[in-house]
Amino acid sequence: MKEALRQAQLAYDAGEVPVGAIVVWGDKIISRGYNQVEQLNDCTAHAEMIALTAAFNQLGSKYLPDATLYVTVEPCLMCCGAMYWSKLGKIVYGAEDVKNGYRKTTGENWPFHQKAELKGGVLADDCARLMKDFFAARR
To answer: Which pTM value belongs to this model?
Structure first.
């Protein structure tokens, strides 16, 4: 998660909402991503989407059943769909996102692949602090 936080800091420094993600296969980071919505003028350029696409390209595969995605903030429903279709094995996130997280839409319904594992709250305070600092600086 610390590497995902470093990616989130890159987003912060670029004026993007500070979300970072990495994909790990075994004990190796195979891809990284951070929000680039403003830079690319693309509402789908979320950290998770960028990290997943890079992982697919790195492995030459559209499925990631043995991979873990670490992301600093609870994924949105769009990103959950990408995680579902990629058959991602495990998702680890930091801070909850009450406004835009997947649970706002799904409630407690499971939006991930049925074999996926989920763990939330990892370094949640650090992840949330970066988001709070970002939005406080813009108000």
So the answer is: 0.96
Evaluate whether 7 touches 32 at the Cβ level (below 8 Å): yes
What's the pLDDT tens digit per position in 80-133? Answer: 999 999 999 999 999 999 999 999 989 888 999 999 999 999 999 999 999 999
Q: Is 108 labeled as catalytic in the residue annotation?
A: no
Which of 48, 74, 96, 117 does the annotation list as catalytic? 48
Provide the edge-to-edge strand list for the sheet that holds 90-95: 28-34, 20-25, 67-73, 90-95, 117-119
Report the amino acid identity of residue 108.
E
Q: What is the pLDDT of residue 91?
A: 98
